[in-house]
Amino acid sequence: MAHGEVLEFEEYVRTRQDALLRSARRLVPDPVDAQDLLQTALVRTYGRWDGIADKRLADAYLRRVMINTRTEWWRARKLEEVPTEQLPDASVEDSTEQHADRALLMDIMKVLAPKQRSVVVLRHWEQMSTEETAAALGMSAGTVKSTLHRALARLRQELESRDHERPATGVLEREERERCAA
Asked: Cα separation of 58 and 53, whole Å?
């Protein structure tokens, strides 16, 4: 890679690392794993930086690398998991309702398959359109819509099965109604 491209990549990382770390954090619940995921994706992207003709698409490319890497990790760990009768209690570090909602949502996102989780993250957190999500994940818009529908239904089901103080019509359904109204 030419010296100019190295500097261009370094500048890109400096300006976009916070947003990319937020994306990684939404893909994996553990903050340390999110940093590892971003670092791995950056290393993989660095090797192909000169092949990205339109640098405006670098975010989409990097998110795709993060999704693929997360899927690789999920497949590798899948064999190490041991099923249990009960799920561990969700820990909420902050007592405010917003942080509690986020912790709950991150916890129930664990029930989704990697493909479903990726679609939910890109559509709802990254606020990408159906078409943008389809392009980023290499699938059709119809597949994005059906995957999102099944993922949200699964999240609702998981949310309703949880035993907490507030009603099941919490943050997930509020967010969905707001997005549909927009």
From this structure: 9
* Helices of type H across the chain: 3-27, 31-46, 58-78, 97-108, 114-120, 130-137, 141-161, 171-181
Reported as a single tens digit per residue, the pLDDT across 65-92 is 999 999 888 777 655 556 677 776 766 5
For 85, phi then psi, to 5°, come to -75, -35
Tokens 């967010």 belong to which residue? Answer: 175
Q: What is the Cα–Cα distance from 18 to 24, expressed in whole angstroms?
A: 10
The two structure tokens encoding residue 11:
């500048």
Longest dimension (CA), the chain: 58
Contact criterion met (CB below 8 Å) for 45 and 6:
no
Cα–Cα dist 3/16, whole Å: 20
| Residue 63: CB atoms within 10 Å | 22
Q: Report the distance separating Cα 123 and Cα 32, nearest Å.
A: 24
Give me the amino acid identity at 172. L
- Per the listing, tokens 């030419």 go with 2
